[in-house]
Amino acid sequence: MKRNVQVLLLLFLGVGLLHISLLTDLYLRYVRPGLRPALIASGVLLIALGAVSAARDGFPFNRPRTDGDQSHDGDRSNGDGHGEGHGHSHAGGPKVAWLLYVPALTILFLAPPALGSYTASRDDAKAPKAPASTTGESLFADLPDKGVVEMSLNDFSSRAVWDTDRTLKGHTVRLTGFVTPGRHGTWYVSRLVISCCAADAQVRKVRVHGPAAPPADTWVTVTGTWHPTGKLGTDDASPALDVSTVDRVPAPKDPYHDVVVTPDSR
Known about the structure:
Blueprint (H helix, E strand, L loop, with lengths): L2 H21 L12 H22 L9 H7 L27 H9 L7 H6 L26 E2 L2 H10 L9 E10 L5 E7 L8 E8 L9 E8 L13 E9 L18
Parallel strand pairs: 1-2, 4-6
Antiparallel strand pairs: 2-3, 2-5, 3-4, 5-6
Helix pairs in contact: 1-2, 1-4
Protein name: TIGR03943 family protein
Keywords: Membrane, Transmembrane, Transmembrane helix
Pfam family, one: DUF1980_C
């Protein structure tokens, strides 16, 4: 690979990382907030490496050719005016190497969106397993008796599958997520949760019974009551909601942080 390709690639990648992690919140589409310092440090390091390489090679990033380089590239003379026919070309790597700029420039000028309905519709949602109780007491705290209960999809899914005490029964709950179309006109309100980065994303989704689905990937807040499905405490149960209202809301800055969304925070 030519030196100019290497140097520019380092610079573009470094600037792109600093752009999404230092100047914007776009990095939250790919990693957890705690990794921001590491992204900033990586961006600074890449820029520094690119700058050092550029300074070493000289502008415009091509090292001046020496007499030794020229004699090596041409036919060597054997002293009697005849060449030995050992010419070599060191023009660099294949032209396709320039395609390496594509991901670097994409991060800089057109940051890919966070994972959404395409991923959620192709992965099976699994409710987080409830911890085993050693005291015989309920694993889930009672919900407030009055008003609409704001819940995360994670908490609702866990209760809807594993809560044999049925603490969801009789309560109106409110959930927030993005729309994921299902089969035969069904749809889900979904979230993707991550441990480190988007590569390890796990799906949380609740089937909606009631209103027609808004467009895929639309962020919504739905209000309704628990729709029991399957036998509680087993993998046959699945989270579902009888929905009475659907309100569109702006996409959150951190799409993977599944927390309770209150009216004041929307």
